[in-house]
């Protein structure tokens, strides 16, 4: 059969693997996530290639299939590096374009991490096994979570053999939590998962917590079945009553009950397409969630989630001070922190004083969450220099020179990318380069021009 | 000590503070001229240590922050420099660029208007942006062979004469956390003025040295001993540092330092006594909590008294000054 007009030679070979653009050093999750095409979709699309970008799609599921390899073009010297860098920068900018308004977030968080330890996790579709990858990402997740939420606590529950198992108690010390999931032989996957048992166990461990902290359950679910003793919708109602937010990262496929659990409790549901996407989905849960507006019949005006907490700020004892017993381990130590109320020595902050029960926090821990409350305004991309009377030649942040002529934009010219490589702060009207833009919004959270 | 080290110096150039410093006799002060000459000797020493060492100097002027010199040549000076056969060329470029940049800016300040607070935060963030760019360019050029660890060892040195500004608390804490992420060490040299609590915390959290200079005329010796060694050698060369760090916070209402504070769970603002409504986010707190807290509190001490602290032997530190 003669190929239809416009079909390019060489289209017979279709790379079915995840990487559609095989360029060294390309770590591009966004393009991989888009190009998860299966054989059948490509077959149909080939016939449509004559038309512009397959606009007519006879099947609905083809709508999500986009050909990302078309947008990568060579520059005038025949190299693809510039296009690749451009693509990566665009991906980063896209994340920054998310609204950064100062919305109310719950800073004090309690999270139960539910790990699927059923036999479905021994599947090798994610390297080396789903189980190993889950453990590795869980470790990174915990480290990063405590970094961003120093006042939070994490507990770990496992789903194995139809039961819920308590793997780690709720603790504010990252080392304790990491230790709980480090013993691999204790976590060998077997049996069937039970969503209801795990959620019930997680809910029970969070029942005594005060209302002003956010209660969350994050489930990493790799199976397609659940083996429950009762009606899981009852559990869902109980969770709604307790105001627990459930988020699920599924590794296999979407299950309606998972989607319902997340939607009704206000959590986030995602199905991981590949390893990189799995990590992204998991790390999306790290920033504090926005506080939901709670409509209450009684007590209008008083926000039930807000409360005044009493906290103590300790003095740090250096190595040179005389040794004394610490109250947490009863070990003789020189260095530690003194509780301001009862003058007991504790080893590490943040913690609750074992003697008087005061929450001991050092001010950097509180300060670590301030950037969520006072975010930096996103910078506007400067499209042309016509409005600026005296444009600065160098980036205000790192003093790198700006390019004079606008660069040609590959692919869609929009998406917030500036052809001049300049990004302007709306407050202080200073221009910054791409690197500084991403750095300021991701890491520093403080604009060098405004000094705020 | 294989890795080249990068040093970013942030100089506090608050004119009022420098005038006070020059006039003070006890402890003996130092004029801006002397300070700059000693600083230039120190910067020359840093460049001389290793050929690949890089340097960036930022000046925190009242109301603005400027990059004065960078070894990658971003700052160009307008005055032509005469060639001098007796001076090593890189030293001469460094000296002349810094002095001319400072002189240009300082001329624009008159003594009439009240001085704006110095742009210390702007300098810190610019130093971090610059370090970030050098790290990313080093990574992208060396990709494919070497490891991902930064091939430079960056550090920031802050030479400060001004007291704390309470409005800079949040930006300085943000800079500290980004420095931790980039593995940048922040050293602080306090030449004149009261103890600076924020910078103390910065030095402590990033593993740097906070040095209170007592003999300002011997400043060069302090700088060579404490700030010249790269972070990698500091395990071998024991650098004097401040162990007693004040981690107490200041309350938002009176800017008093509190040991036991009341924290709003929504916005994390700290109050020294239970208030019915949070002043930052205007959330009302339930009456029960206020009742409970008021009953549980010990009798309020009169303002200005902190409870006595157990004595800690330390080299001549005075009681911490209150910020703001």
UniProtKB/TrEMBL annotation, chain A:
Could you list this entry's UniProt keywords, alphabetically sorted. DNA damage, DNA repair, Metal-binding, Nucleus, Transcription, Transcription regulation, Zinc, Zinc-finger
Family annotation (InterPro entries): C1-like_sf, Ssl1-like, TFIIH_C1-like_dom, TFIIH_SSL1/p44, VWF_A, vWFA_dom_sf, Znf_C2H2_type, Znf_RING/FYVE/PHD
Instruction: Just give the chief location class.
Output: nucleus
For biological process, the GO terms are: DNA-templated transcription; nucleotide-excision repair; regulation of transcription by RNA polymerase II
* Zinc fingers (C4-type), renumbered ranges: 339-356
**Which GO cellular component terms, listed alphabetically, does the Swiss-Prot or TrEMBL entry include?**
transcription factor TFIIH core complex; transcription factor TFIIH holo complex
Against CDD domains, the record matches this protein to: vWA_transcription_factor_IIH_type (cd01453)
UniProt xrefs under Pfam families: C1_4 (PF07975), Ssl1 (PF04056)
Recorded family membership? Belongs to the GTF2H2 family.
* PANTHER family in alphabetical order: GENERAL TRANSCRIPTION FACTOR IIH SUBUNIT 2, GENERAL TRANSCRIPTION FACTOR IIH SUBUNIT 2-RELATED
Q: What does this protein do?
A: Component of the general transcription and DNA repair factor IIH (TFIIH) core complex, which is involved in general and transcription-coupled nucleotide excision repair (NER) of damaged DNA and, when complexed to TFIIK, in RNA transcription by RNA polymerase II.
Report what the protein is called: General transcription and DNA repair factor IIH
- Give the species: Lentinus brumalis
Automatic annotation (TrEMBL), chain B:
Q: What highest taxon heads this organism's lineage?
A: Eukaryota
Q: Does the keyword Zinc-finger apply?
A: yes
Q: Which keywords, in A-to-Z order, does the entry hold?
A: DNA damage, DNA repair, Metal-binding, Nucleus, Transcription, Transcription regulation, Zinc, Zinc-finger
GO BP term (any one): regulation of DNA-templated transcription
The Gene Ontology CC terms held by the record are: transcription factor TFIIH core complex; transcription factor TFIIH holo complex
Subcellular location(s) per record = Nucleus
Name the protein family: Belongs to the TFB4 family.
Spell out the protein name for this chain: General transcription and DNA repair factor IIH subunit TFB4
Recorded source organism is Lentinus brumalis
